[in-house]
Design brief:
It comes from Allorhizobium taibaishanense. The chain is mostly helical and 47 residues long. It contains three helices and no strands. The radius of gyration is 12 Å and the shape is elongated. The chain starts with a helix and ends with a helix.
């Protein structure tokens, strides 16, 4: 993996964490995820 791709993936990971983390519990529930799921979802964007 090249360093540029790693950096872009890391940015995507952090953005996903931030965006999902800023949602209310009700909104997360409406889309079918919990706060516990956020890290797993963001990890998938990092790969």
């Amino acid at each position: 993996m090249n360093p540029i791709r790693i950096a872009k993936n890391w940015i995507s990971y952090r953005r996903t964490l931030s965006e999902l983390g800023s949602l209310s519990n009700q909104t997360l529930s409406d889309i079918g995820i919990t706060r516990y799921d956020i890290r797993n979802i963001a990890t998938r964007s990092f790969r």
